[in-house]
Structure formats: C-alpha cells, structure tokens
Amino acid sequence: METNKTLANESRLVDENKGLKNKIISIITRWEGMLALIIIGMVIVFSNITPYFLDYFNLMNATFTFMEKAILALPMIFVILSGDIDISVAAIIALSSFAMGFGSSLGLGTAEIIIIGILVGGLAGAFNGLFIIKFGIPPIAVTLASLSLFRGISQAILEDQAFTEYPESFSYFGQGYIKGTLIPFELVFFLILAAGFAYVLHKTTYGRKLYAIGNSSTAARFSGVPVDRIRFTNFVLNGLFAGVVAVLLTSRIGSTRPNIAQGWELEAITLVVLGGVSITGGKGNIVGVILSIFLIGYLKFGMGLINMSAKVMIITTGFLLILAVLLPVMMDAIKKGNKLRFQRKT
Amino acid sequence: MNSIKELLKKREITLILLVIILTAAVNMRAPGFVAGENISRIINDTSILIMVAIGQFFVILTGGIDLSVGSIIAFSGMSASMINQYNPSMPVIYVLLIGTVVGLLLGSINGLLVAFGKVPPIIATLGTMSIYRGFTFVLSKGQWVTAHEMTESYMNLPKGNFLGMSNLIWSALLISALMIYFSRYTRSGREIYAIGGNKTAARFVGVSEKKVNMIIFSISGALCGIAGVMWTSRYAAAVNETATGFELMTVAACVLGGVNIAGGAGAIPGVIVGALFLGIINNALPVVNFSPFYQMLIQGVIVLSAMFINTMMDKRKEKQLLNRRSL
Amino acid sequence: MSEKILELQSITKYFPGIKALDGINLNIKEGEVHALIGENGAGKSTLVKILTGVYTPTSGKIIYNGEELSFKNAIEAQETGITAIHQEASMFPELSVVENIYMGHHLKKNGSLDWKGMRARTRELLHKMEIDLHPDTPVKNLGVAQRHMVEIAKALSIDAKVVIMDEPTSALTLREVEELYKIVRQLKKENKAIIFISHKFEEIQEICDYFTVLRDGKYIGEGVVADTSIDQIVNMMVGRSLDQMFPKAVVNIGETVLEVNGLSKAGSFKDISFQLKRGEILGFFGLVGAGRSEVMRAVFGIDKFDGGSIFLNGIPVDIANPKTAMQKGVAFVPEDRQSQGVILEQSLTRNITLPIIDKISRFGKVSSKVERETTAKFGRMMEIKAAGWHVNAETLSGGNQQKVVLAKWLATEPEILILDEPTKGIDVGTKAAVHEFISEMASKGLAVIMVSSELPEILGMSDRVIVMHEGKKTREFTRAEANSDVIIKAATGHNEETKG
Predict the structure, then answer these.
(1) Which helix (DSSP H) or strand (DSSP E) does residue A27 occupy?
(2) What is the CATH code for B2-324?
C-alpha cells in the first residue's frame, strides 16, 4: 500500500490509497474498458440467439451499413474535442450527393464526380466555419440553420425526384470488395482513415492543440495556439469527409434523393460521445470511438437479425446518446462520494 | 427607462414594419393576399408556431436549445388523436388536457436530464428528439389517424368564432398573455433571465439552476402538447412525421425576434412578431409561385441572415458604447 | 458592550482531494468592522462562501445571534441576515440596475412583482449613496466603479445584519473610497457587523476595529487593529517580515528593446507611449479598470488596437497574434491564472510544452521523450513542487500553478517578459520565489514589464514606474522618484482636471 504524501504540504492534497484491487477496478471502469466488456457481452448474447451472427461473410457485409457513419464520426471527433458541435453533416452529405448527381447528369466521369462531391463538402464546411468563427455565432445555431440550407438546396431543385444515373465505375467505392477477398473496400478505407486520424490526434502538434483548445480555449489562445484557425479547419474537415461519405453512400445506393442520410448527424455525434469523447471538449481518444463504432454497428446488425424494426433502432440510438453523457456524470458523482467518505475517515 | 424602451421599440417596430412591407409587397405580386380569409388562415397557422416558439424562447434564454419540440408535438398529437379515435365520447376539452399533460411529461424528462443528469441541452434534446419520434411510431404502429377516425368535435377544436377569432387564435393570445405575465411579473420568470445572464451570479443570489431548467423544459413540453393537439385537429391528421424540422422554425422566430442565441436577453413580444414574419413568408411562397419544396432552403437562409444581422448590430452597439466612454 | 452576533467554531471544509479550511474560529460583534486578513488560498473566499450559504461546512458550528444554524443555500443565509459584496462584481449584464439589486428577493405586491416599488426603493438607495444612476440602465452599460456601487446597493437593499465586503475598494477612485468609508461608518452606527476583506493595510488601519488572520486554511490569530503594528500582522500572515520580501539586485540596464508609440484602442486606452530597456523592470501601476492589462494584451497580440505603433529593437512590428509575439521574443503571463494562464485539466507536461510545441516537434510529429525532457528541465528550473509531471495542473496550489506558467514562458526563451499581477492569489512563500525569479531574469538581460496593483510590490521591484488612470498614462517615475503618495495621486487622476 503506497500513500502519496508528496503534495500534502504544497497543495493540501489528501492522501489516497492505491492498491491492486483498485487498479483493476480503474481499468475496467475506464471508458474503453467498459465498451470492450459490452461488446463481448453483446457478441455472446447475439451468437446464442442466432447462428447468423458469428458468420464471417455476414460480419463483413454488415460493415457496409455502418462504415460510412464511421467515417463521418472521425472528423467529428476533432470538432467535439475542440468544444464545438456540427449537426449539419448529414445535410452536407445530401448537398454533396446532389452536386454529384447533377454532375453525373451532365455526363461527367467518375473521377470528376468524386472531386465535385468532396469539394462541395469542403465548401459547405467552410461556409459553417465562416459563420461560426468569423461572425462568432454559436455552432449549434449556425449548423441548425445550415442544415436546412444545405438539404433545402437539394430539396428545392430535386423536389421528390432523384438522380439515378451514375457511371458504372462509380459504384465500386460503396459496393466493391478488395480484389480477391471478401473484405469490403469501405472497411479497408475506414481503417486507413482511422489510423490517419489516430496519428494526427495522438502524435502530432495539431492533436495537442485540439486538446488544449477543448480544455481551455482562452489559455490555449494565450499560449500562442491559433484557436480560430484550428476550429475553422475542423469544420472544413467535417465538410470534406462528409463529402467523402457522400461519395461512398451515393456509390452504394446508386441514387441521390433529398432525404439521403437523414438522421446521420445524430448517429455521428452518438458514435463520438459514446466513444468517451466529452461533449464539453478536451477529453477522449480514438480507441473509444472505434470501439463504439463497432459496438453500435454490430448491435444494429444483431437487432436486424432478430427482426427489430428500424424505428426501435432509432430509439436505441437516442438512448445510447443520452446514456453516454449520463454515465460519466454518475461515475463522477460516485467517485466524489467515495473520496469524501475516505476523507471523513482520516 | 428611456434607453431600454428605445432599444425595445426599435427592434420590434422594425420587425412590424418589415411584416407590413412584406405583406404589401406580396400583395402587389399576388393581389388577394391581404384578403380577410387569407390573413385569417395565416394567423391561424402562425398561432401554433407562436405557442411553441414561446416555449423555445425560455430555453434559449438560458443559453440552451430544445431540439425535441417537433417530436413532442408529434407524440402528443398522436396520443390525443388516438384517444379521440378510441374514445369518441370523451369531451374534447379533456383530450386537449391529456395532450398537454403528455407534452408536459415529455418536456419534464428533458428537464430531468438537463437539471439532474447534467446532460447539456443540445445532447439531451437531440437524443429525446429521436426517442420521442420513435415512440410516436411505436404508439401508432405506423398507422395514421385521419379525418375518418376523428370526431367532429375534435376537428372543430381549433375553429369557432368568438369576436371574429377562432379558438386557436384565442389560445395563442391567452398563452402569450400568460407567458408574458410569467416572464415579467413572477420571480421564476425573472430567474430564467438570471440563469441566462450569469450562472454564477445567479447561484450567489440563491437562484436554483435545477429549478429553472425543470421549469423551462416542462413549459416547452406543455406548450408543444397543446400545439400537438391543435396541429392534428387543424389539419385533421395525425401522421408520424408531424412537425419534423419544426424546431428550426421556432429558433428562427426567436432569432428574428431579437432573442440572443447565447442567452440572457430577449422578450416574448419580439418572438411573436418574429413568428408572424415567418408565417407570412411561408404563406407567401406558394402565392408567389415558389414551390413548397423551397421552404427548407428559405428558412435556412432567413435564420442565417437574421443571426448575421443580429451579430453585426450587437458588434456595432458595443463599439458605440466603447466610443462613448470618454477617453 | 456590543453583542457577539456571529461566531464560527472549528469550521472545517473538505473538497475532493483538498482540505480548504482547517478548524477556523471567528468572532464577530455587532457594530464592529472586522478585518479578515490572509493571502488568497488562505481560505478567505471559501469561508465567505460558507457564511453566505453557497457551501456547507464539513464540520464545525455556525452560531448566529446565539443560535446554532446551518444554511442549506444562499437564500437562507440572506434571509438570516448575512450578505456579501464580491470582488468581481457578479452582475447580470443585460438586466437593469433595479433587477440586479433585487434578483433573488424581488419585492411583491398582490402576488406579482412590484416593479414600481422596487424602482422607487432603488432610487432611494442610489440617492442615499449619492450615486447618479438611472434605475433602468442595463448594467452592461456601466463602468467598473459604477457596477461596484450597484453591488453595494444590493447588499444594503437586503437590510442585512452582517455585511461581508470582499476587496471592496480595488476599483474605486479616492473619492469613491471616501464614500465607501462613509457608508461603512453609517452601517456601524446602525449596529451592523462588517467583515472587511482587504490586503491594503492603510485601509485596514483607517476603517477596521478588529482583525483575524488566516494562513493556509488555518486560523492564526486575531487582535485589535489599533493595538497591532503592520509588521506584526504581516508576520502572522506570512511567517516573515516585510523587508525580507523584495530581493532587488543591481542590474546593468541596456539598450531599448521595446518601444510603444501612441497606442490607442477605443474604450480601453489612449495614446500610450513608453520604452522598455534590457535588464530593467518596468512597473505599471493603476486602479482596476485603468487599462494596463488591455495595453499589454494589445502588445502581445491578443487584442487588436486602433492606432499607434510598436517597435522591437528599433524595427516596427505587426504583432497580429500571440504566436507572432512569441516568435519575436515576447512572453506574457496573464492576470487570470486559472482561465488564461494554465489549462487546469491537463498535465504539467502538456501545459509547459504548449507554446513551444511546434518548436520541439519535427514535421508536426510530437516526441513524448522531448516533451518530458523539456518539461523536466524548465519545471526543475522553477522548482515546481508536484508529484510528477503527469499530474493535472488543478492539483497544484496557486503558487505552483503560477510557477508552471512561468516555466512554460521561460521555455520560449523570450527577450521581453510581460507579467500581469504575477503574485495575485499566491501564498507568500511562492510570492518571494517569484520575485526572486523576476529579478534573476532581469539580471540575465531580459526586459521585464510588471503590471501590479500592489503598491509595495511596485515600489520594491521596479526600476521605473508608469502610472495609468482611466486609459491614459498619467505619470512616469524613476525608482528614486517613486513613493506611495505620488503614485497613488497619479493613479487616481489627481494630476489632471478630471473628477478626482
């Protein structure tokens, strides 16, 4: 049993007990630990209910339904870590898909279409950034309005029609597999992107600055961090990758409607927050988000196998989001209660 | 006295002027717009928005936002309609009451999450927005309640003609009056402004943030409940997609009405005029040959422009203030 | 003989991980002005929060008017008759003066709020305090001193029996301070008890009858003000005497490294010009609201300014943001340590390496090894006491947190070091260490600007003193010319034909 007295004189810290039992509890109660446990539990439950769950082919194919949302969640990590929020990403997908469909209808080729899609996404993100950073309007308000604006453009022009003509080669990205394997292109693409984001977040100066801004944007500013530039970049990235997702999604379903990706902003935010990233910013890491991506993705897959309706799944997503934010509060309250009880004993 | 009244007057007078100009302009393009029947329809439509926007106003005042308003309207509307469908003999006033209570309960869940769960309003209402909408589907089993299933008395609820105005308009008026009184002449009402203005200072003088959060979300929920019943009875349909996207309109009404999106400042009369402005625009669209599919886009543009203008005006005011401080 | 109105017995307060108060005793009599003395971190603000019902004590008794009481919340404390006027006016900017005074205890008439009555009472109060203000003015339109007056009016409106004043004169001009004394004396006559928190000994001697000293959360002693010398009180606060506090070395002052010409910013400061030389410590004195921090923030690139120019080593520079300032060798230790200086919820490593993170990384890739080494180097230089470099800054005391801020700026290898209230809220031991550090830096050739509101500090440390008042530079003194009188006169605008 080791007691930590070093700070006692300088800052009146009260002694804390650290033992092996407490160490194990602290690993399990770490967010990522809990997520891993839940995933294991879920796998056990579903594989007992239905033989179709633990099937390699099924598991691979299931990823088609959630890899796009997964990619959407990656840049959202940056946005939420910095203390901001963006609920317009799904609408950016719609706008981007619309632009691609429009380009396709003009006879453009796959490469051009993809470029348009990603570019439009980036521009939309920059649009958000302009209002949020330059004009100083709160992110929730701007993205609430821009979500109407972006999707509204698609709706105004398409009305209740759809773009359905896309070049053949375009369909590879959303539907194709890596040559000679059963591994979907989208899955591999996601894993590469995730690795990239992980590197930036945890090993680069950009990542360091993100965490600083999320914990105290004022102190960060005073320390020479270009807070405005970074926040703006985050929104542009969010838009760009929404464009990328638009490419994948449009490629997968082969058409563009104004209501494409409806509700995906909620999903993206849920994935991030459930992954342990604090909604107030400054805390969280990529491992948790990746775990939550697969947790929710396969949870829905499992629910689908046992024939739960889509509506129930939406309710579940809503619950998970709220739970993800409630849990840290409850855990915190328990920890504080324990500390105070310990203090009273000494 | 003078400085505040001046400022208030400016904002609302400007808006009212805009409303008048807008109406006149539309009328020029499409005569008959200002016809009594049309105006009556516009005000009836806007009455629902006014009710819900007032609820949203209180939440925005504290620096939060209620994204679940559309879903609460849908669920309470569906509940009320189904009750009416399966209990046609129940007096409509009771159905209205039940719908209100349903909304109140849903809103208070939001309140509990924010006040005691310490969940930020954005997240809480983003989550409940989905959950309540999902509940609506589950409750209705995917079915709609249409005019065939509703009783005459239910569908007549928002109608009527007392002193030239329908029940619906009277409801909006009554609610507006009550809420204005609440916001100006009760302690709880002023405490909402306190929390929005300076949370720490509010705590120091004994204002309970928990109490305020419970109040604002419950009020918002209750108003959505009333709106839900009115909505389904006015349009004679309870559909699962009712009021989808309505939250933006309520925020728009507040922003147009001069409510600071970050909290602490704003008043209900402004919200009402803001709602009227939106109501006129929405009704003007088909009249000036804009397809209804343009509604979403135009709303987005209006809200963004209004927020932009608000911000620019605030910055200018601040600069004027600084310049006035003689150096 | 006046009665004891309020007594605290053995008040102890724990927060998770920290013991803020340890067995505090306090005896307050009716009609007495009782000074509560101690550095910040000594526990004064925690004690005030307990008295006003914001916190509940972990153990100990509060005895008010002979009855043992406990307050569940701030309103209960207020209803009992205890109120506090805080240092940072905590107001509702969008609301009127009337409402700021009455929030929490609005007057009612027939069930509704009685605005007419509240307005009338407010007018009365303001008139009694001889303040010329319209009750409906939104508080955001008021200046700092006016807001403070509204705070005082707020306390008076409650008709409290015990009034706690927390550093009430920090933003007031001389005349306003006299007004405050009048109000305090009036309250005394009405048999109210006043708990007066201040670190200005002149004031304590002028207006207070009795005092209690706190240090590090513990009760140290008490006494009659008239019978005790300042040195004795300081000894109790600090454990050492006044002249051991300011070590000033003799330094060779070099060439001009910073020159500011005619700097202006609407609403903050006007026509500020000064020079800074290598090796010197330039003190900036003034009342709160004088504009000193604003000038420094403009020089450091945090805020924009409207007119004037800045020269570094004779070359005109455009400092657009803190990053540019840093690159040009300027460092800034800000006034508000907890929100501007350190990132409380991050480790010491993250804090110390933040400004130079780009410098110590290659192609954007961060090396944990270099991070740790850099932190250790500068952390040790500043003698930061912590369990490890990985602990969060919030676990450190105020003094150590300030050392973290200094360490991180030291790591940027600056030529110019700007310090804004560097010893505010620091225990006296660290205070001396900080002063030593500043002197050492100056002797190594750094050019130092020190903004401070503590007269002893300014007089003790500066080679030259610049005084600001309401956004303008009023006087400049050399070390020889500077003394309390002339500096205070310049700070309160006595040298000009403005309201004195």
Answers:
(1) helix A20-28
(2) 1.10.3470
Q: Give the residue-averaged pLDDT of A143-150.
A: 94
Is A102 a member of any domain? yes
Q: Which domain holds residue A149?
A: 29-329
Half-sphere exposure of residue B36, counting CA atoms within 13 Å on the CB side? 2
CA distance C437 to C443: 10
Task: Check: CB of residue A26 under 8 Å from CB of residue C416.
Answer: no
CB-CB neighbors (< 8 A) of B301 in chain A? 149
Choice among A163-167, C155-159, C331-335 with the minimum mean pLDDT? C155-159
**Domain count of the fold of chain A:** 1
Task: Let me know if residue A43 belongs to a domain.
Answer: yes
Interface check B162 vs C, CB under 8 A: no
Model confidence over B89-142: pLDDT tens digits? 999 999 999 999 999 999 999 999 999 998 999 989 989 999 999 999 989 988
Q: Write out pLDDT tens, residues C194-205.
A: 999 887 777 888
Residue at token pair 């690795």 = A195
Contact at CB, C18 and A14, closer than 8 angstroms: yes
Q: Where are the alpha helices (DSSP H) in B186-294?
A: 187-197, 199-204, 209-234, 246-256, 268-287
Please say whether the beta carbons of B66 and B220 come within 8 A.
yes
Q: Is residue C500 part of a domain?
A: no
- Which pair of tokens denotes residue A316? 């579940």
**How high is the ipTM of this complex?**
0.85
- Residue pair C99/C82 in contact (Cβ under 8 Å)? The answer is no
Contact yes or no for B265 and C266 at CB 8 A: no
How many distinct structural domains can be found in chain C?
Answer: 2
- Establish if C83 belongs to a structural domain: yes
For residue C487, tell me if it sits in a domain: yes
Where in the sequence is the domain holding C453, given as residue range(s)? 256-491
Query: What phi and psi values does residue C107 have, to the nearest 5 degrees?
Result: -80, 145
User: What's the sign of the alpha-carbon dihedral C402, C407, C409, C414?
Assistant: positive
- Work out the average pLDDT over B199-223: 92
> Computed from CA positions of residues B191, B197, B203, B204, in that sequence, does the dihedral angle turn out positive or negative?
negative
Domain presence at residue C498: no
Residue A5 confidence (pLDDT):
35
- Other C-beta atoms closer than 10 Å to the C-beta of C25 total 13
Q: Kindly report the nearest CA distance between residue C10 and chain A, in angstroms.
A: 15
| Same domain, yes or no: C107 and C134 | yes
| Residue A134's CATH number | 1.10.3470
A80: closest CA of chain B, how far (Å): 12
A 3-62 → C contacts, CB under 8 A: 4, 6-7, 10-14, 16
Look at residue A13 and tell me if it is in a domain.
no
Indicate the domain borders of chain B. Answer: 2-324
Based on the fold, state whether residues C281 and C417 are members of the same structural domain: yes
Note whether C229 and C301 are same-domain residues.
Answer: no
Q: Please state, in angstroms and as integers, the Cα–Cα distance from residue A68 to each residue in A194, B90, B97, C152, C237, following that order.
A: 12, 49, 44, 59, 63
The domain that holds C442 is classified in CATH as: 3.40.50.300
Dist CA C74 CA C82 (whole Å): 9
Token pair, residue B129, equals: 């927005």
| Residues C48, C91 within the same domain | yes
Structure tokens that stand for B94 in this block: 């009771």
